[in-house]
Amino acid sequence: MRTDGRTGMRRLVRTVVAALGVAAALAGGTTAAQAAATTATPQAAPTAGLTRYTDDYTVQHPYDLPTSARFSISDGVYNTWILKGDKPHTPTSNTGPRTEMRWKTNWTSGEHMWEADVLIDPGTEHTCIMQIKSNTAGEAIYVQVQNGGDIYHGSHALVARDMWGKWFHLTADYNPSTGAAHIWINNSLAFTTHYADPSGTEWYFKNGVYNLTGNRSETHFKNIRFWHG
């Protein structure tokens, strides 16, 4: 796997700093476990070394309803919801219901990052709230809520537990050039994966609510920001 030069340097710096911290702590009589606990924080911000950019979006929603029936903005908060029995976003789609913000920037190489403050309403179940998606239908990141408020990548990779009903900060990135993808919860790295990028693929961000097994899924977003390497 190829390694992005900037990402590799960031990891090297973190490793060196941690090693120096452990050595200094041990010299002062601290146990290795205590030293590890001391040097575990603070982590570098996920956005360190990246450049912020702006983006615009369209809203995908049940095709037989107006946008306002499933999407609203209030005091800087983007509110997205779907109900049991909702239609897909087009009459010919075989997918489940959704209300998603589809961000317009497409990219083919280099690290790109999405971040936002997120609130998931209780009852939101088996619902995707954020994707890093390709134009060939694959997803490098697929953030899904299931099992009573736990967050997964896909259906099986647990990322965080008990996230219903409280604001938290969600960050995700993908670099098609290296295949590296990550999820951070409250700026702490929670999940890492590798997704091979097919030639010619374009990538983009989506957030909102997609699919449900309950009667209603609703998620709120604010302070949405975008970064690239």
Characteristic terms for this protein:
7-stranded antiparallel beta sheet; 229 residues; mainly beta; Jelly Rolls; 2 domains; single chain; 8-stranded antiparallel beta sheet; 43% strand; 2 helices
Strands, helices and their partners?
Blueprint: H1 5-27, H2 32-39, E1 51-53, E2 57-60, E3 71-74, E4 77-83, E5 98-103, E6 112-120, E7 127-134, E8 139-146, E9 150-153, E10 157-160, E11 168-175, E12 180-185, E13 188-194, E14 203-210, E15 216-228
Antiparallel strand pairs: 1-15, 2-5, 3-4, 4-15, 5-14, 6-11, 6-15, 7-8, 7-14, 8-9, 9-10, 11-12, 12-13
Helix pairs in contact: 1-2
- The averaged pLDDT comes out at 87
What is the CATH architecture descriptor of the largest domain? Sandwich
Helix % is 10-25%
Give the biggest beta sheet. Answer: 8 strands, antiparallel
Number of strands: 15
User: How much of the sequence is in beta strands?
Assistant: 35-45%
The tally of structural domains comes to 2
Structural class: mainly beta
Signal peptide: 1-35
Domain Alginate lyase: 57-225
InterPro entries: Alginate_lyase_2, ConA-like_dom_sf
Protein name: Alginate lyase 2 domain-containing protein
Please explain how this structure is put together:
Residues 57-225 form the Alginate lyase domain. This is Alginate lyase 2 domain-containing protein. Residues 1-35 form the signal peptide. Keywords: Signal. Pfam families: Alginate_lyase2. With 229 residues, this protein is mainly beta. The chain is globular and about 40 Å long. Strands 1, 3, 4, 6, 11, 12, 13 and 15 form an 8-stranded antiparallel β-sheet that branches. A 7-stranded antiparallel β-sheet has the order 2-5-14-7-8-9-10, with no helix packed on it. Mean pLDDT is 87; it is low at 6-40. Helix 1 crosses helix 2 (32-39). It is built from 2 helices and 15 strands. Strand 8 and strand 9 (150-153) form a beta hairpin. It folds into 2 domains: 1-43; 51-228, Jelly Rolls.
